[in-house]
Write a structure and sequence with these properties.
heterodimer; A: 193 residues; alpha+beta; Alpha-Beta Plaits; 2 domains; 4-stranded antiparallel sheet; disordered N terminus; B: 569 residues; alpha/beta; Rossmann fold; 3 domains; 6-stranded parallel sheet; 35% helix
Chain lengths: 193, 569
Amino acid sequence: MNKPAETGTATATATEAPPAAPPKPKPKRHVISVLVKNVPGLLAQVANLFAARGYNIESLAVGETEDERFSRMTVTVRGEAEIIAALKQGLKRFVNVIKVLDFTGVDHVERDLALVKVNIPAGARQEILELIQVFQGTVVDISLKDIMVVVVGPELKIDTFLNIVRPYGIKEMVRTGRLAMARGSVMEGHESE
Amino acid sequence: MSRKIITEPMVGARLLLECLRNEGVQVVFGYPGGATLPIYDALYSFPEIQHILVRHEQGAAHMADGYGRATGKVGVCMATSGPGATNLVTGIATAYMDSIPLVAITGQVKRDMIGNDAFQEADVTGICRPVTKHCYLLKAVNQMPRVIKEAFYLARTGRPGPVLIDIPRDIQSDKYTGPLDVDMDLPGYNPRVQADQAQLEAAAEAINSAERPVFYVGGGCVLSGAHRELRAAAERANIPVTTTLMAMGVFPGDHPLSLGMPGMHGTYCANYAMDKCDVMVSLGARFDDRITGKVDTFSVNSRKVHFDIDPTCIGKVVETQFPVVGDVRESLKRVFKHLKTKERKLWLAELREQKQKHPLWYPKDGLRAQHVVERICHFSHGKAIVTTDVGQHQMWTAQFYSFVEPRHFLTSGGLGTMGFGLPAAIGAAVGRPGEDVWCISSDGSIMMKIQELVTARRLKLPIKIGLMNNGHLGMVRQWQEMFWQRHYSHVILNDSPDFVEVAKAFGCYGLRCDKGENVDAAIQEAYKFKDAPVLVDFRVEPEENVYPMVPAGGSLEDTLHYPKGVEVV
């Protein structure tokens, strides 16, 4: 469905928002990397662990690792420290979970990828192409009315790009879950206690 | 292990039995059905494994569980797909909560029918994942040797627990050739048995420096077989011992250092020691809410030492300064060398005073369940294997039966499953033939699994059922009386059958006792029957409460004692 919903909603909430309630600080975001044995059912098991405690997974990326016997799940979740600790302990109890790493406080790299189909209003093509260039996006498809772009980067970069092109109209957008990897060599010490 | 190779093509069902035998399985508790037909056909000509037919799959799971608790071996239960498998779930969850080794085998519909809402299909691995240590759905017959081996290994090692193996029916008929004994593939599973030396020494130092230490002993001590090591450590360092519901008997209840059970219905003395200690040494216990009450006020002035094989258990509820990850028995053996002998006279005298001031007490008039339990203990010399169901009678058994050996008190502590007692007693009696087995139950609980009287009768097991018949769901009634304005909502069981006649109808013996002075005679009479179960219907006080009681979320000072105003004697 090519629904340019993004443009409308932003303004609607801006005008209709109730008088400013003091914003509750969002719980800290944790990016947790889980190395698992590549077997059926494990994703359901991990997802259920979060669901059973009423925790919403903000993003999730799963894929094979350099060793095809193992997969890596990168889970992004917000929560209080104790809850996150309990979740990590829960993960470690699974027989097929090999390693649990929390990137909080660890020097690491994070990347998201977004596929965005941007509307092209009359005469705006060049302008949009320039913006894409600034964000080092790649044009993967183009028609008279829209343009499909791949943008890769940390969450903030993707969010900024989306905000910039939103006025032209975003017809469709998909994003991957977050991928993360520690810089240098990950030592045992980084494993959550 | 012999590296036996199967050269003649063997069907999966037979292969399963060969694998079970390879694991030392002698008994399987089960109930057949469409999706396990090939397995039952293989059992027909496999005398090496005894199959015990139950009358409800939940009973099979509890029997395997009771067998495991009584013997320390891995119990095995089996059910067909769909309803058979879902009936096992309560039993599996019961074992999971108490970390009992169990392997549950379920039939599944044929592989190409899975997910089609086939007849008697249920996603059993999906249902059981949260209540098992691990689940397997077999996808091919050649996985069987590895999966069975892994399942038993997972069930009994580390923190034990139930493992489920779901076997599609067509795999049971598929042919297999190859090795019977194969390597396991569990790269993520490495339970730490040997504790770290530095952790051990730090723990020993904390214990040595303590003036008012207490051992808080849980089911982990039973599971690791640490009773001798525990006693040696307690006696060397003069450390008083509290034993949780799961640890009854791992330290002799009649030992001068024994304080009894801590927690909601624990002795005042045990709770006092937990509250006032300066170092609390948890040995395979998990700081359950029935022990801690309100966590914020739980033993605030003590440093915690926690021995456990499951690192995820340490620091989960209370902050722990001295973790010791490893097998409790191994750790205790090693820590013993570092323990200093200390008299701790003041601390022990203080606890003795509390014990004398607040003993477990009940009025001596009428016919009371507490008295019955005390007399059963007397006549069985504290040596019976006692199973219970859940509720008041369970607490009274823990309070008034003085257990002196481990693996003698089998009860559903974590999940609190009514209906556990009778099948668990059957499992225990099968696993330890010739031993004195009592099932202490009640008019509420017994009805949950009474059909297993058939199984006990067929096996000629002389199980003695002490039925504490008070005409109520006693524990719920107690809470309604104390905290819900005496709104006795659906707790009055005035329509129960005549249990003596029920027992007789099942081909068992039935006795009734409705007077306090007849209790001894009734128990002695029960001991006369050797060829079938006997049920003794004790018509106990209908509105008795369990004391002492620390109300849920309370602390030591909130303890409610037996209101002695009602004493008649």
